[in-house]
Amino acid sequence: MAKIKSKFVCQNCGYETSGYLGKCPECGTWGSIVEEILDEEKKSSLIDLPDKNPPKKLSEIEMNSEVRMSTGISEFDRVLGGGIVQGSLILIAGDPGIGKSTILLQTSGELCKNNKNVLYVSAEESISQIKLRADRLEVKAENLYIYPQTNFELIKKHIEDMKPDLVIIDSIQAIYTSTIQSSAGSVSQIRECCNSLMTLAKTNNVSIMVIGHVTKEGNIAGPKVLEHMVDTVIQFEGDKYKTYRILRSIKNRFGNTSEVGIFEMGSKGLKEVINPSELFLKEYNQTQTPGSTIIVTNEGTRPLLVEIQALVGTTPYPTPRRVANGVDLSRVLQILAVLEKRIGLNLSKQDVYVNVIGGIDVSEPSADLGIALAIITCVRDVVFDSHTAIVGEIGLSGEIRAVSHIDKRINEAQKLGFKRIIIPASNEVQDNNDIEILKVQRIIEAITRAVSK
User: Fold this and answer.
1) How would you classify the pairing of strands 322-325 and 420-424?
2) Architecture of domain 66-273
3) Scanning 159, 199, 241, 404, which has the fewest C-beta atoms within 10 Å of its C-beta?
4) Which H/E stretch holds residue 376?
């Protein structure tokens, strides 16, 4: 009898070792190394393969008239870059209960209305459970096929026989291939199944959407190579206990990255939010207090107006707290250091809390000036002008630096009824008679002009 060989693989980062370790030396995770059996009988051999796709000149490549396929959901199409590209492999990840299966089932219903064939592979739910959800979402489609299966070889056979327009795998962590001895969800299984799905999509020109789980830290579960294999990575963000969801593209070979789509979760599924800026500002004028400002951030090609709130209070403890929700904490600490050095605002004995209203994460530096003014107005107990929007990056010397897409930001603020907007002086803008443009060079100048009515 042949000796059974095995290896130990970290389920978090894919690190391989010959023996068990309690802590992964690569990523530092405890208890993540699992034994996987190696099948020595199934070794690949070198054979002569026919080359069906010889190299072609770029000018000789002919494009199909239907390169993209619309999902029927405009916000989803925006995130995908205009629709689903034929033969692409798309990964959708998010927390449990966030709405991943919901949006893909709704997308299936919309595609079937346009006479598209969709194969929904459910590896976690039964046929009756999918039917129950479809009835709740009012999805009625004749060309939607539900296939509850976890074995990849059987799934592959049906895809090759049916050749549907779209295949949905729910989820990649639940399916397995018989060529690998480890259990479903292991690093080896995820890597092999994803690689086979990619080959299947390219050779058969079938679009495949794969649902992926996330870890407790919010990262996509499985090896990092999973994100490199797929064509598009879409992250579902938001609190499952709240109404609004954000669909964000973090990788897209066929469109713009960092594009977002806003949805509202209801009893009948996800509903598109056409004007998210109006949504985020819905309660701004009703609850206006010191420490509240409006910034114009940019998500992909879309400008968004969001409210920044700051709370500053004296702490009884030796070390004051610094808390940031929706913005990078290190960015907030940098702004506090500039305020202390350049304008003499001492907050060494006060707690500082910064929050972005609406659950959206603001990552670009154009929010710096809005955060600084929110903190200052809270400290001075001054109500910021409700008809003024803010945009600008703060340098370490206190200067206000230029930002990108300034004309789009100004037009969005003007469209929502703002009378003034504070922007960096180095930005060149087109003339606009509908909104007053205030250019500032230093942070002290921005403070002076912001509080004056």
Assistant:
1) unpaired
2) 3-Layer(aba) Sandwich (3.40)
3) 241
4) helix 368-380
